[in-house]
Design a protein that fits this description.
Length: 368
């Protein structure tokens, strides 16, 4: 029984990057032996165990065979006879197919260290083409390691093209696709993820609405540079699409509600926000109420940040409309409802009176 660190922990240590999660691989052990040592079984598809003291996951070495469509169409075989090399060859990229033993010795049967040095994302074996999810994973790694100069190897890109043309990407569930997209959006250069998908022909299959879009990627790049939140990045990416297309993308990928809301509102309101200083008070109030700035001020602030990122993506030096709209929102929120209630107004009459007072406040703000 031999235990190794595998995958990302080895890769990132060799790159000098922080190691957050460690994947452990057990070679030469049976299920019965793991149970006898106090490991607790988890995972229905293949033998994974929790360490009796640390709670970390330990997986038995295994081989796999394609048995159906999609990323889940595999049959796994785990036994004490499966070697380290046999386990590592089923992994996606050479830089993820390295192992390290307890003494710190690195096992690298597929030249992952060489590809680290050459800054290449290269597949381990032709079996790469059996799993469509790997197209998204490689694009995500390209986004993560773009600042270090990594690129996808030509032969791997060709396999990704074959997968994209095969129709296998359609077997991916919305949940799995979104999980990869979400992680990619939070990488250092998320625009690279979509650029790689476009080059290999996957973008027309997964996100055809974005296939010819460059402004969305430019805005997303700015949002990443400014370390904005996920839902802001998603809104930036989709901001050029018509509202109907934004709805379709959101529903197809089952994006989180916060992402859906901000993306749709940004698509609907970006143009009006850009004209805000010239708009009449009635139009500004309508914009503020659409965002419910009285109860959800942060959502409006997130929208303004998305607007700023789109402006920077277009090469502008700033977005002065944001400060104007922040002031307008503050003026509208400053209107006190108490005097109206004390005057005996209720229901619709109270709503109309409050709207009138807010309009006066916005007109005074505009003149000021």
């Amino acid at each position: 029984m031999h235990i190794y660190k595998v995958g990302g922990a080895v890769r990132d240590r060799l790159l000098g990057r922080p190691v957050s999660d460690i994947d452990w691989l057990v070679v030469g052990a049976s299920v019965e032996e793991m149970l006898a040592k106090g490991y607790r079984p988890v995972g229905a598809d293949f033998p994974v165990f929790l360490h009796p003291k640390t709670g970390e996951e330990y997986a038995l070495a295994r081989t796999e065979r394609k048995s159906g469509r999609g990323y889940g169409g595999f049959t796994f075989h785990a036994s004490p006879d499966v070697t380290l090399e046999e386990d590592l060859i089923r992994r996606d990229l050479t830089i993820n197919a390295m192992a390290e033993d307890e003494a710190g010795t690195v096992y690298d049967p597929y030249n992952g260290q060489q590809d680290l040095d050459q800054r290449l994302l290269r597949h381990v074996s032709p079996a790469f083409a059996e799993d469509p999810l790997r197209v998204l994973r490689v694009a995500r790694f390209a986004a993560r390691y773009a600042p270090l100069g990594f690129r996808v190897a030509d032969e791997t890109l060709e396999l990704m093209r074959l997968i994209s043309a095969s129709g296998e990407l359609q077997a991916l569930t919305a949940e799995r696709s979104w999980k990869e997209i979400e992680r990619a959006l939070m990488e250092a250069q998320p625009q690279v993820f979509f650029q790689v998908l476009r080059v290999c022909g996957a973008l027309p299959e997964l996100l055809p609405e974005l296939d010819n879009d460059t402004q969305g990627l430019a805005a997303l790049e700015q949002a990443a540079l400014h370390e904005e939140a996920l839902h802001v990045r998603w809104a930036c990416l989709l901001h050029t699409l018509p509202p109907a297309s934004i709805k379709a993308v959101n529903q197809r990928l089952k994006a989180p509600r916060e992402c859906q809301e901000l993306a749709l509102l940004t698509g609907e309101c970006l143009a009006k926000a850009g004209q805000a200083p010239e708009l009449p008070a009635t139009a500004v109030l309508e914009l503020l109420q659409k965002f419910d700035v009285y109860r959800r001020p942060q959502r409006f602030e997130d929208f303004l940040i998305a607007c700023e990122m789109t402006a920077l993506g277009e090469g502008k030096s700033g977005y002065p409309q944001a400060d104007y709209l922040r002031g307008a929102a503050a003026a509208a929120r400053a209107v006190d409802v108490k005097p109206l209630v004390q005057a005996g107004l209720t229901g619709q009459a109270l709503g109309e009176a409050l709207k009138s007072e807010r309009l006066k406040a916005l007109e005074a703000y505009k003149l000021g």
